[in-house]
Please model this.
Amino acid sequence: MREKTIELDFIIDKLTNSIENVITGDSFETEISLATTADLKRVNKANGWLFDWKFELKQPERGL
Model:
């Protein structure tokens, strides 16, 4: 099976080994992976998320 290339459009302001709070300098262990349908059921306003993941994944420039 051939791998699919996914191009993302965002700016990285600093390379670190984790997510870093720029105000406090706190660092958080980080793992990056593709979202699954099961993930989308858990990342919603009812669970405290303010980011609309379903909307973002539907955007054509995301390449999914």
User: Anything to note?
Assistant: DSSP finds two helices and two strands in the chain.
